[in-house]
Amino acid sequence: MLCTVVDAVAKVTINRERRRNALDHTAVVMLSQLFERLEAADVAAIVLTGQGTAAFCAGDDIKAYKERDTVTSRAHFRRGLGLMDQIADHSCLVIAAVEGYCVGGGLELAATCDYRIAARDAIFSLPEVRKMGGSPTWGGLTRLPPLIGLGPAKRLVLLGEVWTGQEAFDQGLVDRVTDPGKAAEEAMQFAAEFATDIESSVFARAKRIMHQAVGAPASTMHALNLTCEEVDPFDGQPD
To answer: Other C-beta atoms within 10 Å of 132: how many?
Structure first.
């Protein structure tokens, strides 16, 4: 993993270009440790990207997968799932900068982020159900429906549709599209603008409550609003 920090913005790069930035055991552990360290750093935004322009992340490393036994395979799954939850719940704004292939666990990784910027010719797909006899259980089954709607999520997961970056934008999976080769650059610019005028604790609390409110009953949502206002009352004046 590569990580640089400039003016409260961290850039995290999955540095496995020869494997299309796929996530083997070591990569999952290193990425988790890096995001844990960034929780304690003076950072407001994180840009997550892959090395090169051929792939953001090709998901689980299939070559490494074939070398695992049942026990190590289950352990890898749990670590990967924990990583996805860790990134989704991170106190910073996390931005995925997507070039090339964003498939399988790579798409699930992008879906954990708060904001996604992708090249128009990027490739998004979840081939597990249609082509691999498995399920996208690093969050594809559960995180995508509330993110883009049940219908589009079914087309990705169950029908195995393949979307370009532009199509992913049209479906609401991507928040902004760029020319090829420009996703990371635009993500860093966006992150820098965000980091200049944000109260990190307020942002983290709002993000956490929004996540807790998804699918919650009305009474819970009401209580969350009350709690937020009591902790951080708004007086109508900017900080």
So the answer is: 14
Q: Which are the contacts of 224, defined by CB distance < 8 A and separation ≥ 6?
A: 209, 212, 213, 216
Q: Which residues are catalytic?
A: 108, 128
The answer to whether position 238 is within a domain reads: no
Do 32 and 132 lie in one domain? The reply is yes
CATH for 158? 3.90.226.10
- Tens place of pLDDT for every residue, the chain, 239 residues? 999 999 999 999 999 999 999 999 999 999 999 999 999 999 999 999 999 999 999 988 777 667 777 888 888 889 999 999 999 999 999 999 999 999 999 999 999 999 999 999 999 999 999 999 899 999 999 999 999 999 999 999 999 999 999 999 999 999 999 999 999 999 999 999 999 988 888 899 999 999 988 888 888 888 888 888 877 776 666 55
Q: Is residue 133 part of a domain?
A: yes
Same domain, 55 and 162: yes
Count of alpha carbons within 13 Å of 90, Cβ hemisphere only?
Answer: 31
Six-digit token string for 173: 């999976």
The total number of structural domains that make up the chain: 2
